[in-house]
Amino acid sequence: CPCDDERPGSRHNAGMSQALPSDRPQIAIIAAVARNGVIGRNNQLVWHLPEDLQHFKRTTMGCPVLMGRKTYDSIGKPLPGRRNVVITRNIHWEAPGIEEAPSFEAALELLKHATKVYVIGGAQVYAEALPWADELVLTEIDHDFDGDTTFPEWDRSAFAVVSRETHTSPEGWDYHFVTYQRRPPPVPDEP
After folding, report:
1. Coil, helix or strand at residue 99
2. Which of 30, 89, 153, 176 could make an SS bond with 137 (beta carbons 3.0 to 4.6 A apart)?
3. How confident is the model at residue 11 (pLDDT cuts 50, 70, 90)?
């Protein structure tokens, strides 16, 4: 499997102040985001794009997925063909086929032998993962939606577009499958 390699990795983000292990999997965030930043309403998606769901499945299949409990509740079951880890502060919460972790750091510890982990939501988990994300796999929807949950603000200059594929919805608005890779940190000038 391309994402669940049992050999320890050696990924790290130089200059980050948070305490994540230097020996960790590559962190990829995958999300569908409306033009106005909305990602959901009442713990559900606010659009129906079968091609996006197929893209999500194709991209994450065989890889561990990391999510918050509310995201898991909205899905209602483990995603097949993927190792499912749910972050929850409720020490008594459990679900069949799910591994639980009390924090983002603890979840990464569970997944330390994977080569790549997909963070699949929700907003709070995205915000926690964003400073550490090596890759963003976004479906950018060229339409505004009403919603109560938004994707966190992020520094676009820290990432480079490596692929972009445009589609049009049956309703007539465009959406784009865009993959961003984190740019390497600048090399300090030598004296």
Report:
1. strand
2. 30
3. very low
CA dist 120 and 132 (Å) reads 14
Q: Is the pLDDT of residue 131 over 80?
A: yes
74 contacts 44 by C-beta, under 8 angstroms: yes
Q: How many CB atoms lie within 10 A of CB 126?
A: 26
Q: What is the pLDDT of residues 56-73, one digit of tens each?
A: 999 999 999 999 999 999
CA distance linking residue 23 with residue 13, whole number of Å: 10
Residue ranges in 8-86 assigned as alpha helix (H): 50-60, 69-75
Q: Which two tokens stand for residue 169?
A: 């919805």
Contact 110, 19 (CB under 8 A): no
Beta strand 159-168 with 174-182 is: antiparallel
* Contact between residue 41 and residue 148 where contact means Cβ atoms under 8 Å apart: yes
Q: Is the omega angle on the peptide bond into residue 62 within 30 degrees of 0, that is, cis?
A: no
- In this structure, what are the phi and psi dihedrals at residue 166, rounded to the nearest 5 degrees? -100, 140
Cα–Cα distance for residue pair 151/123, rounded to 1 Å: 6
Half-sphere exposure of 129 toward its Cβ, with a 13 Å CA cutoff?
32
Cα–Cα distance list, 14 to 17, 39, 49, 184, 186 (Å): 9, 30, 37, 9, 10
